[in-house]
Design goal:
This protein is 37% helix and 22% strand. The strands form 4 sheets. It has a 5-stranded mixed sheet with strand order 5-6-7-8-11. It is rod-shaped and about 105 Å long.
Length: 230
Amino acid sequence: MPQMLLSVNYFLYNSLYTGMLLTAETNSYAVHRKALRVSNPQGAQRSTYYLQLPYRYAIPLMIIFGALHWAFSQSVFFVQINVFDVNEQLLSTVQACGWSAPALATAIFLGYLASLALWAIGTRKYHAGMPIMGSCSLAISAACHAPPGDENAALKKLMYGAIWQSADGTEYAGFSSQDVRPLKAGTRYGCEGLHEEVFAPNPVETGQASISLYTRAELRMFSDNQRQCA
């Protein structure tokens, strides 16, 4: 049972790390120009991580949970004692559950270390200047419409920001391999693919200034509280 619970916890931790680091890497495009990560790289594109997470997170996580599995296997175990007389005749058998204090203390320490690491990484701030998209394809689609003249942008290094301005003065935000401008709070930005607007209200204080960006379609989704990001 402890081994099964540890395996479930590993998948939960992995899911939490994946969500946070996915958002962090996407958010970093507002600060640094970089290529996309894809399964089959072309051009300037980069390959995906073999272990789903960056190695500096995946390897320590695997080591900690591997050590936890070992520690729990040494903490609680089955014990059988056979009692014999002087003639080596079996008199009785005692079966019980044994435990080891050093191994149990080690398991508790490793569990605390894993929880502390998750909390520490969760307190880190995202960069300002980009909406928190996560894995929602609705928000990602709104940002993936290159400006006119930006051919084969997906094969080049990209950056997120204000990418172009239409004849009627509407500014558009998204990814582009061309020059981009940082988003400004209070400015409305169009999203060609959704025919919606992205707008930046006043910055939200989260330890550092960050811009809160939502599409109107997303706001409807949040208000319905049931609409799914397909």
